[in-house]
Design a protein that fits this description.
- By secondary structure, the chain is of the alpha/beta class.
- Helices cover 38% and strands 19% of the residues.
- The radius of gyration is 23 Å and the shape is globular.
Length: 488
């Protein structure tokens, strides 16, 4: 780092094994700690996107990858994992600048990337790609073909590596496009994959990197040679991707979009433990977590006590620059993200809500938004997600009212229940419209290795869970002899 500026990798496309300079004509990138300009984001030229699609289509059409012995895929991904391990610190630093998430957290993510790749190999090995259903009738699982991986800004390295590894393990060539707000970790990932491909003498069309905004993403999504698309981001972004994908050819989509995740706090909940969990959940990734608790419905007897307990914990959070190892809560990723959160808070305040938090961090440079609690307003005004460190709290009279209000949110990814009666809590959670409902906790991790989580209530298309992710990249094909005596 020179003069306080972070050292960042150059933004370069990777097209058919060659690094190319894209146009640096995208949005202005800024250091989230200070707001300082870092230069513009890259935008791949249309002809570069076309060349990448041609290369991916070529290797898919030749069956060079899908027909490879599975050992070859394993060798490539193992080498990829090894290089990621060697570059952990670079990946963590790039993720911190791209997302504003504290370096201690991005180091944990970077340290686990190789495990993510090895897990992709494990899940691919468990699949029965070919099996007999009857004499002369077989079921085959085959890769769709080239896949566009459209990655977000809030956990850029983790999502890019996971989707890439599972797609390649399934046999799909990958076209990776990071968020224009978060291009740096993706370039390090491309370096690692290029090194692995070169080590095994494999064509560059298996993995390629492109840059840009919705226009480039749309070009990928709408091209019929791109056979499937996986996207993580906002609802508006997911709708745009779906529209592009449907404009010329329908194709499999996995869209993980926004969600206002409800939390129900029953009358018998331990308020101190509940406050611990809610604060941990609302501040993960600086509040930029699509499954973080958003709207809380607490029994009226516990309302004031819960707010006091949450505010007490917020006052003790170490807010600071993301690159400082002593920071527990850093800035928002970029100016647009910060402004969106602040505007959402201001809207609720203008409607009469009471807004409280740990202070306004006056005089701090960068894109800081303090963790905030909003209450004293009708639940009709808190329907949509606030993708940031904001918790809206509402008083309810009983579980029935809490459930009705929880299921009216624009949610569907996650939900939470807090209670001392686990049987009642599990029963209540089973009736919440979300793909994952956690009782008495807000951890980032899946509750079980076999977790399968669908995206409910408009929060996306498909779902996640490791077994489901590998299956997304594979289509089914029945091949057999048609019975000569079929009745019709």
């Amino acid at each position: 780092m020179a003069d306080g500026r972070p050292a960042l990798p150059q933004q370069l496309d990777l097209i058919d094994g060659e690094r190319e300079e894209p146009a640096l004509t995208g949005i202005m990138l800024n250091d989230p700690d200070t707001g300082e300009d870092l230069g513009r984001s890259a935008v791949s030229r249309p002809e570069s996107v076309e060349a990448a699609i041609v290369a991916a289509d070529h290797v898919a059409a030749s069956s060079a990858w899908s027909a490879q012995d599975f050992g070859a895929r394993t060798n490539l991904l193992t080498s990829f994992a090894d290089v990621l391990d060697e570059r952990q610190e670079e990946l963590a630093a790039a993720d911190t600048v791209d997302s504003g998430v504290p370096i201690t957290v991005t180091r944990m993510f970077a340290g686990g990337l190789s495990d993510v790749v090895h897990e992709a190999v494990t899940h691919a090995r468990r699949l029965k790609l070919h099996r007999s259903l009857a004499d002369n009738v077989g079921l085959h699982l085959l890769p769709w073909g080239p896949v566009a991986v459209l990655a977000p800004f809030n956990a850029p390295a983790f999502i890019a590596v996971k989707k890439t590894a599972y797609a390649l393990a399934a046999g799909c060539p990958v076209l990776l496009k990071p968020s224009p707000h978060a291009p740096h970790a993706a370039n390090l990932i491309a370096d690692a994959m290029q090194e692995a491909l070169n080590a095994h003498g494999l064509p560059g069309g298996y993995f390629q990197l492109l840059h840009g905004d919705a226009e480039v993403g749309g070009q990928l999504a709408e091209d019929p040679r791109v056979r499937c698309v996986t996207f993580t981001g906002s609802r508006a972004g997911g709708q745009s991707v779906a529209g592009s994908a449907a404009s010329s050819s329908l194709k499999p989509l996995q869209l993980e979009c926004g969600s206002n995740n409800p939390a129900i706090v029953r009358a018998d909940a331990d308020i101190e433990r509940t406050a611990d969990a809610l604060v941990a959940g609302m501040t993960k990734l600086n509040g930029q977590w699509c499954e973080g608790p958003g709207t809380v419905f607490v029994h009226e007897r516990q309302h004031d006590q819960l707010i006091d307990a949450v505010l007490d914990r917020l006052s003790g959070i170490a807010v600071g620059p993301a690159r400082d190892p002593g920071t527990a809560f850093g800035p928002q990723a970029n100016a647009t993200q910060r402004d969106n959160v602040l505007h959402a808070i201001e809207r609720l305040q203008d409607l009469g809500a009471k807004v409280e938090g740990r202070g306004d961090d006056a005089g701090r440079s960068g894109y800081f938004v303090p963790p905030t609690v909003v209450h004293g307003i009708s639940a009709d005004h808190t329907m949509a997600e606030i993708f940031g460190p904001v918790l809206t709290v509402h008083s309810v009279t009983d579980d029935a009212q809490a459930l009705e209000l929880a299921n009216s949110r624009l949610g569907g990814l996650a939900a939470y229940v807090f209670t001392s009666d686990l049987e009642q809590g599990l029963g209540l959670g089973a009736r919440m419209d979300a793909g994952e409902v956690k009782v008495n906790g807000t951890s980032l991790l899946d509750m079980h290795p076999g977790s399968v989580q669908s995206f409910w209530a408009g929060s996306g298309i498909g779902g996640h869970g490791n077994a489901e992710l590998i299956r997304f990249f594979l289509g089914s094909r029945i091949v057999g002899v048609d019975p000569p005596d079929a009745p019709i």
